[in-house]
Amino acid sequence: MNPQGLNEELQRHGLSRRDFLNFCTSMAAVLGLPTTAASAIAAAIEDPARPILVWLEFQDCCGNTESLLRASHPTVADLILDTISLNYHETIMAAAGSQAEAVLKKTVQENQGKYIALVEGSIPTGADGAFCTIGGRAALDIAREVCGGAAATIAVGTCAAFGGLPAAAPNPTGALSVGDAVPGVKNLINLSACPANAENITALVVYYLTMKSLPPLDRYRRPLFAYGSFIHDNCERRGHFDAGQYVEAWGDEAHRHGYCLYKMGCKGPATSQNCPTVKWNEGTNWPVGCGHPCLGCAEPNFWDTMTPFYGRLPNIAGFNVGEWVDPVGLGVAGVAAVAATVHGVAEVARRGGHKSSSNENKKAEPKS
Amino acid sequence: MTHVVVDPVTRIEGHLRVEAEVDGGTVKQAWSSSTMFRGVEIILRGRDPRDAWAFTQRICGVCTTVHAIASIRAVEKAIGASPPPNARILRNLIMAAQNVQDHVIHFYHLHALDWVDIVSGLDADPAKTATLAQSISDWPLSSATYFAGVRDKLKAFVARGQLGPFANAYWGHPAYRLPPEANLMATAHYLEALDWQRRFIKIHAILGGKNPHLQSFLVGGMATPVDPDSQNALNMNTIAALQKLVADGKDFVSRVYIPDVLAVASFYKDWASIGAGVGNYMAYGDYPMSDGDNAQLYLPTGIIHARDLTKVAPVEQERISEYISHSWYDYSVGPDKGLNPFKGETNPHFTGPKPPYEKLEVEQKYSWLKSPRYDDAPMEVGPLARMLVAYASGRPTRVKELVDTVLKKLGVGPEALFSTLGRIAARAIEAQVLVESMDKWVQDLADNMARRDYRIQDNEKWDPSTWPRECFGAGFHEAPRGALGHWVHIADGKIVNYQAVVPSTWNAGPRDAKGQPGPYEAALAGTPVAKPDQPLEILRTIHSFDPCMACGVHVVDATKRELARITIG
Q1: Residue A266 domain flag
Q2: Facing A93 at nearest CB: one of B10, B156, B208
Q3: N or C: which end of chain A has fewer CB within 10 A?
Q4: Phi and psi at residue B521, in whole multiples of 5°?
Q5: Which residues of B does the annotation mark as catalytic?
Q6: Which pLDDT belongs to residue A26?
Q7: Same domain, A128 and A204
Q8: Alpha-carbon distance A331 to B443, whole Å?
Q9: pLDDT tens-digit profile of B338-350?
Q10: A226, A251, A286 — which closes off a domain?
Q11: What value of ipTM does the predicted structure carry?
C-alpha cells in the first residue's frame, strides 16, 4: 500500500496518521521492541506486498479464531486484516465446499514457499485419519501439503502448538501438535495459550511483516515477546505473594482485596505468558484480575501437568525467581541481548533488505 | 438426479459435510455428517469434577461459556452445592451476553453472505442507500457520505485483486435478490458488527477475565469477588461499566440487527415456507429468576409437537435417548436401540470410507454425531424452539409482543415461523429479549452489593470430603444453539462417567434406527437449488440453524474402553 493509499484508508476509518503511528508504537511495545521500531512497523504496513495467509482448522474449538476477532485497536487491526490477504479461513470465508477447497489449492500451488500457514487445533493420527476430515481429506494430509509449502507455519493456540486438549491423557484420537505431526516444518512458531491472545496473534503478524523474519523463540518455539516472562513475575498480586498474603476461601476478605491466589491453585509461577501486562479484550482484564487462578494454559501438556487446577503448585521457592527461568531465556542480560538482536533486524528491515535475521543463533531445541 | 456434496460447510464452527440428492431443482434427500471427533469425556475420566468445566468449556470456543455452565450445574446437582444469589445473577449476565453476541455474529458474519451479495453493493448509489437506511432505522451511521466511504473502501479492496476471504463465492447467483443499496447497507453493518461484538463482549472480560474461554467459573458459584468498597472486586465501577455496555448492546440490537433482519426478510419471504424440518421443538428453559431447584425460568421449558402452538408439553429427562444406527459408534445393546444419557455408551468405531473419499456410505453409518430423540421423535432445538415455547406459553410477555410485531411487519402468520426465515427472526427476537433483561440483572447485582451480600460461592461444598461417596447429577442450559445437557457420575471425588447431549447433536444428527432424518436433513428436503454446482440455498437452510459441530461431537463413554483397537499411526 502506498502512503497515499494508507492515508485514504485511515481517513475512511476515521483515523489520523497520528493514530496510526500511535498504533505502531503500541505494537512495538507489545513486541518488546524499542520505540524506534515503530517507524519500521509503519514502513512494513505501507509495503505494497500483501502477504498471503491461510488459516487451517483441525481438531479445534474455534476459540483462537474468536480470539482473533477480538483483536484490539479495532479499526487499525481491521486495516491490518486488509493489509494481509487471508485467502482461506473456514469460519470466515464466503465460499464453501468445492469452491472453498479450490481457493486453498490455488493459493498453495501459486505461492509455494511464500504464504504463511496458521493452524488451529491438533491433528489426529488414529482411525486412518478419519477423526478429522475436510472435503473428504484427512487433516494430516492437508497439514503436510499446506504447511509443507509455507514460508512459515504458526501454530495458534495450545492444541496446535502442543496437542492441547485432544492430546490430554489418554489421547483418544492420537492427536499431535503441528510440529510433531509435520516434522521438519519450516519456520514453525508456537503461539500457545487457550486461546492465544489476539494481541499476540496481531503482534506476531506485524513482527513478521516488519522484520521479514521470525522473532527470537524460547525452547518451545514461542516468541520471547509474549512468552519471555512468567505470569508470576509481572502479576499485580505479586506483592501479596512476597508478603505471604493469600486468599484462603472464595469470597473471603483476602479474595475481595486482591490477595495472592497461589493457595487456590494459581499456576502463574510456572506459566510463561504476557497476560498480566497485555491483558485481554483491549486491556480490560485477565483471569487473575477477575479473581480466578491461572490455569497454566500456555504450557505444554497443561491439561495433565497443571491439574488438578485448584491444587497448589509444589516447591515454589518463595522469592527466588531465578529458579524457574528458562535456559534460553530471560535474566536481565537476556532481555538486553534480545533487544539488541531485534534492533539489528529492524535496521535491516528499514533499509529494505531481506537478509535472514541474526536470530538464527536462537534456534529452538527440537521437541522430542 | 444430481448428487451434491458441500464439504466443508464454511462459516460455521467446526467440520460439517452435507450430501444431497437434487432433482428438478429441488433437494429430494439430504445427509448431514460431522467429520471431526476429539473425545473430551474419556479425557475427563478420573479427574477432579471441579476441573471439568474448564475441559468441557473447550468443546467450543464460539459458545465459549455454555459447556462450563452446564458442567458446573451438573456437578453442583450431584454434590448438592447451592450457588448464592450473586453467582446466579453473574451467570445470567454471562449467559445472556453470550447469546446476544453470538446471535449478532451469526447473522452478520456467518449467515448474511447467503442473502447479501457484497459485490452487488459496488453498484449501489450512496444517496439511495442512505434513504433506505434512514427509512428502517434512526441509527446515526446512515448518511450518503458514510455509505460512499464504505462503497469506495470495497471498490479499493476489489481493485487490489486479492479478494481474500471473499474470493470464489457465489456472487451473482440468481438466488440473491437484494437491490444493490440493501447489499451495501448490509455490508456496512457487517463491518460495524465486527467492531460492536468486540466491544460488547467486554462484559465477559469484566465478569470472566477474558473472552474467549472465560475463567471465573467455580463449582458452587463464581470466582469474581463482590465488594463495593474494594478496587479488587466487582464494585460500582463495574456496575457503571456493565450498564454502559448493556445500553450499547440494546442500541445495536434494536437499531441495527432487528431492522436489518426485517429488511432482508422482506425480500426473501418465500423462505418463510422453506426449510421447516421436523416440526417438533424442545427447550429446557433457562435464566433462573430466583435461587434453588424450583426457581422460575425467565425463558420457559417445554415441547411443541407437530407445529401445534396450542399445547406445550413438559420435558422429562428420562424420555431422552440417543441412537447410533447411522453413527460411527458401537453399542453393547446392538446398533438399533436407544440409550438414555445416564446409561450412555460411546465407543467410536469408524466404518466409513478411508480418507481421502468422494462419497459417504449414507445407507450405512455416516457421521460422528449420534441421533438424540425424545420419545423416539426428533426435536429441533435453538432460538426458534425457545421463542415458540415462550410464545405458546404466553411468557415472558415480551416474547409474544416482539413475535407478533415481527409477524405483523412482515405481513405473515405464525406458521411462517416454522421455516428457514423463522429461525433467523427468532434469533433476532431472542437477542432483543435477552439484552433488555440484562438491565434488571445488573440492577439485582447492585442491589445485592447495597445489601452487603458478598457471597459468591458455596464454600461448604468446596472440599470433596463433604461430598457423598457416590453421586449423579445432570445440568441443563439453553446455549445460543439450543438445549444443552451434561450428565456426570462421581465416585470418591473423581469423575466416573461424563456424558453430554448437545444442541448441534439434536439438530445435525443423522437418521435414527427407524430411518427418521434429523432436523437438518428434514429441513433440506424440498429446498430449491437453482445451480447444483453452486448450492447457495443449501447453505441458507443449514446456516439458519447456526451449526456448531465441535459441540456436537465429543462424547466418548468412559466405561467402555474399546479405543485400544484404534491404531495410533
Answers
A1: yes
A2: B10
A3: C
A4: -65, -40
A5: 13, 60, 63, 67, 481, 504, 548, 551
A6: 72
A7: yes
A8: 48
A9: 999 888 887 899 9
A10: A226
A11: 0.94
How distant is the alpha carbon of residue B473 from its chain centre? 23
Nearest-neighbour CA in chain A from B569: distance (Å): 6
A242 and A181 part of one domain: no
A-chain residues within 8 Å CB-CB of B461?
A: none
Give chain A positions within 8 Å (CB) of B534. Answer: 99
Whether A66 and A202 map to the same domain: the answer is yes
Say yes or no for a CB contact (<8 Å) between A292 and B118. Answer: no
Q: What is the DSSP-derived secondary structure letter of residue A215? A: P
**Secondary structure (DSSP) of A264-312:** GT--GGG-B--HHHH-BTTTTB-TGGGT-----TTSTTHHHHS-STTSP
**Residue A367 or residue B318, greater confidence:** B318
Query: Which residues from A are below 8 Å from B567, CB to CB?
Result: 126
Residue B351: closest CA among B340, B343, B363, B342: B363
Cell numbers 479488587 correspond to B232
Least confidently predicted of A144-158, A336-350, B222-236, B280-294 = A336-350
Letter string b/e over residues A264-277, b meaning 16 or more CB atoms within 10 A of that residue's CB: bbbbbbbbbbbbbb
Interface touch B168/A166, C-beta < 8 Å: no
CA quadruple B135, B141, B143, B144: dihedral sign: negative
The pLDDT confidence band at residue B73, using thresholds 50, 70 and 90, is: very high
Task: Please count the structural domains in chain A.
Answer: 2
E runs forming strands in B103-261:
217-218, 221-222
pLDDT digits (tens, 9 = 90+) for B478-513: 999 999 999 999 999 999 999 899 999 999 999 999
Across A8-17, A35-44, B320-329, the highest mean pLDDT is recorded for B320-329
Q: Which of A226, A255, A290 represents a domain boundary (last residue)? A: A226
pLDDT for residue A81? 53
pLDDT at position A75 over 60: no
Q: Do A247 and A339 share a structural domain?
A: yes
